[in-house]
Amino acid sequence: MELFTEYVKDAFLSDFALEYKETIIMPKQNGDTFIYDTDMFSLMMTPRENENGVCLFIEGEAKDGFPSDGAFSFLLGNKTPDGIMTVKHDCRWWMIPDFPKSYADIRRESQFMLLKMGNVYFTLAPLVGENYRFELCEGKLTVHIGTDGEKKLSGAVCVISRSTDPYKCVTDAFLSAKESGAIRVSLRKDRVYPDMFRRLGYCTWNTFYRGVSEKGIFEKLDELRNAGITPYWVIIDDGWMLTDGEILVADGEDTEKFPNGLRGCISAIKEKYGVKYVG
Fold this sequence. Notes:
Blueprint: H1 2-12, E1 18-20, E2 23-25, E3 28-30, E4 33-37, E5 41-50, E6 53-62, E7 71-75, E8 83-89, E9 95-98, E10 110-117, E11 120-126, E12 133-137, E13 140-144, E14 152-163, H2 166-179, E15 201-203, H3 205-208, H4 214-226, E16 233-235, E17 241-244, E18 247-253, H5 261-273, E19 277-278
Parallel strand pairs: 15-16, 16-19
Antiparallel strand pairs: 1-2, 1-7, 3-4, 4-5, 5-6, 6-14, 7-13, 8-9, 8-10, 10-11, 11-14, 12-13, 17-18
Helix pairs in contact: 4-5
């Protein structure tokens, strides 16, 4: 709790206020736990500290009348950092860096924030749970439930770390989340980089976007072969399935684009062009 209070004082100057539908709710404190009680939900937030940082965990329950698309926010406070870098969604599948001037300028669906306060850096990374997600937006750390029938929330909402080295600051945040049980998958340092990705490969996305087809793939592989290049692997990216705009309409490939089916296309890529792996 001591570390968490320092972080918040130094980086955010927040009083841990919570906002729901433009109403500000101040917490009651019971030891290390902050308690929020409203007509729509009850919520407890508890910081868990370790040597690398602090994770915030929530336990909550929605009351009758809380909408399935309901959201509530923790306010970031009114400090003005010397510098902010966030990572935000540019569209549904791409994320890009952004450099807002203040907390209020943080764009919607930002999933990461690195702050500079004098010679010290702070990382704040929102996390996701089984039935909710957190994001940064316009001076707030907001939880979205968005699942019909869900009444209870339980899990980590964000991790905060501090360091004079920005790279260590980011690393420490994820180490802290892992140690706290907030992240259950292996961190990058513990993963084995697949040997196949050390070799030259080809992905269809930047060539075709969603217009990928068997004919187009073969034409590009012919171009590469004529240039004396054999990709070790090929990824058939988005666009191979049968859709109506954004809606998936069938469980299988678009047979107009892939008249021999994906299986036939993949076999030809391997046999005709000598590609080792296709995915």
